[in-house]
Structures are given as structure tokens and as C-alpha cells.
Amino acid sequence: MSSATPEGFFIEDLGVEDAPAIGELFEQNAGASRWSGADIREGLSQGRLRGLVAIESGEARIIGCLLWRTLLDEVEILNIAVNRQYRRQRVAESLCQKMFVMGRSRQVATIHLEVRKSNLDAQAFYRQLGFVECGSRPGYYPPEGEAAVLMSLELKGKSDALELCDE
After folding, report:
1. pTM reported for the whole predicted model
2. Contact 69, 48 (CB under 8 A)
């Protein structure tokens, strides 16, 4: 299902055929976790992963991706990346908001993620979306052993107006 946005891109479900392009996008983003196209394809094929992609309206190329997994009523964001040229244009926000709508429709209670302790911009972005810090994991990110900041967002009972997308 696609959702149009006013910024010149639209959001679609991530498909197995998108895996190679997503692997490349993650490689080009220093802060993104390293997932190969093969890892993504396998996870999607086995139903262990879900995702959304942002696609530029004009050129129909993938400019952003959000990857997650679900366990019962919880979601864990595994990776989010946006092409450098499209940052600060609401791509990541649109991907997240669409996932929130999907989560609410599927009775998801909580969304979790971890982010590098040094990535203050990402932490601020997630706080803006309503995430709160709920812990840390020392030595989480190899090879240097940087700590991860754990963040979560409670969806149940949250009734934000989501102007970006409806399901």
C-alpha cells in the first residue's frame, strides 16, 4: 500500500525485490546498521522482517527505508536510513509515522529501538516523535564498543493526529 506525501515522495511496503537497493542505502549511511541485501531478502522472505520504503515521485528510486521486526504486541526498529540528498525533508518522519499508523491498526503497544550514544541528532529526532530514553547497553556497537541508548514509544492510548498518512 502506498501513501502519498506532499514532499515529492511516497511510502510503500518494502518488498523482497527492494532488498539489493536497501542494502546499498544502508551501506551509504554511516550511522545505519550494516544489513546486506541478502540478509534483508532472507528476513522478508521468512516473514521475520517488515519494512517501508520512501520512493522519490519523479525518478521512482528508493530514497529511504525503515526496517523492523514484530514480536507479539511490540515492534523493534532495526534500521532507518535516508539518502543524504533527502535528509531533513521529512522522509524519516514520514516513514515512522506510517509505521505508527500500521502499528496502531495491529494493536502494537510499544515500539523499541537503540541508537548510538554519540548520535545526538538521532536521539533528538526520536524524542520529537515521542520516544523516551529507557536504558542503555554498554559496549553494544562493534568494533569500538560504543554504548547504545535504548528508547521506547508507547502507542496504546496515544491519539496523535497523523496528517501524513492513513491506512
Report:
1. 0.84
2. yes
